[in-house]
Amino acid sequence: TQRKNAANKQAAMDDADKLTGPEKFIVPELTVKDVLSVIPPHCFQRSALRSFSYVAMDVGLIAAIYRAASTLIPQINPVDLPVSPALVSALPPIAQDALQKALPYLYPVGRFLGWQAYGYATGLVATGLWVIAHECGHQAFSESKAVNNAVG
């Protein structure tokens, strides 16, 4: 009877899993050779020209992001980016007063946030450069080991 109760409990648990739980994942029996055999042969051809184009693109993007940031962020100041008088007059008097008191602090905060955005955007692109350098260590950048080592 204990075996029967255990079997009933297991059957009930299996039924509950079917109703509420996810389907059970069955790991396919694949070898590395099986996986590599479905990748088209052109994916294994290394091209130094294509690889260097990615390096150039990343360096160009970093330069463009820097140029944009160094041009735009300093313009966050009272002279180049004044608060519209129409906006101030549309606010209730208490908010106008608060805005006038907070205004000297808003511009430095805006510049700080601008440089934070610059750092984030540059970091995204620079991660791409790091990935390229990492792949050079696996000799995946070009056919030449010397080029891979120099770039990596």
Question: Strands, helices and their partners?
Answer:
Elements: H1 2-20, H2 32-37, H3 48-72, H4 85-90, H5 93-137, H6 145-151
Helix pairs in contact: 3-5, 5-6
Your description of this structure?
The protein has a domain at 46-151. It is flat. Helix 3 packs antiparallel against helix 5 (93-137). The protein has helices at 2-20, 32-37, 48-72, 85-90, 93-137, 145-151. It starts with a helix and ends with a helix. The protein is mostly helical and 152 residues long. This is Fatty acid desaturase N-terminal domain-containing protein. One of its GO terms (molecular function) is oxidoreductase activity. InterPro entries: Fatty_acid_desaturase.
Instruction: Give the amount of beta strand, in percent.
Output: under 5%
Taken from the alpha-carbon principal axes, the silhouette is: flat
What is the helix/strand order?
HHHHHH
Secondary-structure-based class equals mainly alpha
Question: How many separate helices?
Answer: 6
How confident is the prediction overall: mean pLDDT?
Answer: 87
Q: Report the C-alpha radius of gyration, rounded.
A: 30 Å
Helix content: over 70%
Query: So what's the oligomer here?
Result: single chain
The low-confidence parts are none
Largest sheet: none
Q: Kindly report how far apart the N and C termini lie.
A: 68 Å
Total beta-strand segments? 0
Descriptors:
mainly alpha; Fatty acid desaturase N-terminal domain-containing protein; flat; 152 residues; 6 helices; oxidoreductase activity; Fatty_acid_desaturase
